[in-house]
Amino acid sequence: MSVLVVGSVALDSVETPFGKADNVVGGSGTFFSAAASLLAPVQLVGVVGDDYPLEQLEPLRQRGVDMAGLEQVAGESFRWRGRYRHDLNSAETLETHLGVFSHFSPKIPPQFRTAPFVFLANIDPRLQLDVLQQVERPKLVACDTMNFWIESRRPDILELIKHVDLITLNDGEARQLTDCYNLVKAARWIMERGPKLVIIKKGEHGAFMFRDRHVFFAPAYPLEDVFDPTGAGDSFAGGFMGYIAQTGDLSDANLRRAVVVGSAMGSFAVEKFSVQRLVEISKQDVESRVAEFRRLVAFEQEGALVS
Amino acid sequence: MSVLVVGSVALDSVETPFGKADNVVGGSGTFFSAAASLLAPVQLVGVVGDDYPLEQLEPLRQRGVDMAGLEQVAGESFRWRGRYRHDLNSAETLETHLGVFSHFSPKIPPQFRTAPFVFLANIDPRLQLDVLQQVERPKLVACDTMNFWIESRRPDILELIKHVDLITLNDGEARQLTDCYNLVKAARWIMERGPKLVIIKKGEHGAFMFRDRHVFFAPAYPLEDVFDPTGAGDSFAGGFMGYIAQTGDLSDANLRRAVVVGSAMGSFAVEKFSVQRLVEISKQDVESRVAEFRRLVAFEQEGALVS
User: What is the ipTM of this complex?
Assistant: First the structure.
């Protein structure tokens, strides 16, 4: 089954302690698509300017990303320039040019409107709500957001979450949205306002998935070389939704596997600049890393304390 | 089998957003003993002043902590006063009075010298080395340390780690000691200098255990109410070493279980002030929490990506 994603398609310029890359493909929609398309057909909706090197998206198209919803309009593409210091934990934004993205108004092509799985990547929550008006009862709708929208568009986010099944956000954003420092309480606060599922991403510290009273946790894979953290969160979401779309299974056991597949995709994303690593990996690579995740956390309970 | 611990026995005064406690039992040796003694006989070596309310250690004695090595000398006991803000992540130290602890010179009673398991809690590395001169070939020696010693006694720490099997330290300390930001590299740096096992504690973000090329990770239990984080790391170590002493088993599978038991003990420690929660829990409580840890991270790999 296919997954529809609405998000940004950008040009990133990134500096890390290990190198730099100029005007490489980036954006939440792009990273999501690169990860998800390994597992399921992806329909991408976004906008780029007439300066965008569309040929750089060719590897995504070859992987099965349908770009019928990617508008190209007159003007400049969304560009982001950032730098990571040695800790690689948070990007320092040096420049942001929204360009044509500032007037983005997502138009979902008719053939995309029945997508069973929908991911509303991090864009203005009013646009995310607008997308929901255009699609027909998906099996699962997920959204992401960021601090900027939580600050400036809080009422819209509260409206949005009434209509989504899953929200992914990072720990800082969860705290900002809910005013609860404790993440268990923050997740409950959100679940009381709509989403049945809440995924709180903690970057290098892994991710929690909350559902009712259940919690699942997947660590981030302890890589020896993190090359460029850009796009890890969107790649996580792409792996998660791609796996859900591939299997069509929303059972607890499968949602847990989807979180691990998401973590695996996030761990690949950071091994190279841009979507470079994501487009070169195979399903077998993901499978192997999922197995490594199992070894990372596996323990047997036998040898019990109480005998 | 028994476990010997050499560490501080202090009086803590703690303020958290949820309440305050004055002059309650604290210190690395105390928290370690409270956790470990649920699982194995503990021999505690430390020092207190003549002002110490020894009756407050009675619950530990009843749990099987042998205090033949706890000296009481003229002078004031080690006192620490700290405060946690809402994030509960790092203590703000308001006052530290070392008192009699500043002249501490551990004397291991003859009947303790054959303890098969030894934990050198966070004290001056010269004293930790001195303890090793006094004991007879334990099966496993573990040590802890802190930023203060890494800064002021680096050559002694490097000498110490040549002689221990396991070091536990937090992520910041691992980075400070090794000058590697990446924790996988930091662990390798340490293992190349002595310890076969390295446990890097990340507080609310869980703990890694490194051994050769193997990594195991246990999350911190996602508690809804963290009451007072003081002593969580020493309780972790107590749970780990207590479990190892109870089972006498140093296999990989058992070391993994020991990390989870340690995490469980850390999660109990923070539920109340001082060692209060640790002395009231049963083995069955720990067993149940270990089962919750399993549910927290468990996923089945079936439903494979590659079919």
Answer: 0.91
In the sheet where A65-73 sits, what is the strand order? A65-73, A42-49, A3-6, A117-120, A140-144, A166-170, A197-201, A207-211, A214-218
Domain boundary assignment for chain B: 3-297
A257 touches chain B (CB under 8 A): yes
Per CATH, domain B3-297 is 3.40.1190.20: yes
Say whether residue A286 is in contact with chain B using an 8 A CB cutoff.
yes
Residues of B in contact with A291 (CB under 8 A): 301
For range B116-131, the mean pLDDT: 97
Contact B228, B84 (CB under 8 A): yes
pLDDT band at B18 (very low <50, low <70, confident <90, very high): confident
Contact by Cβ (8 Å): A266, A223:
no
Residue B41: left if φ>0, alpha if ψ -120 to 50, beta else—which one?
beta
Strand order in the sheet with A78-84: A19-26, A10-16, A78-84, A91-97
- Quote the pTM value: 0.94
pLDDT tens by residue, A128-157: 999 999 999 999 999 999 999 999 999 999
Residue B260 CA to its chain's centroid (Å) = 13
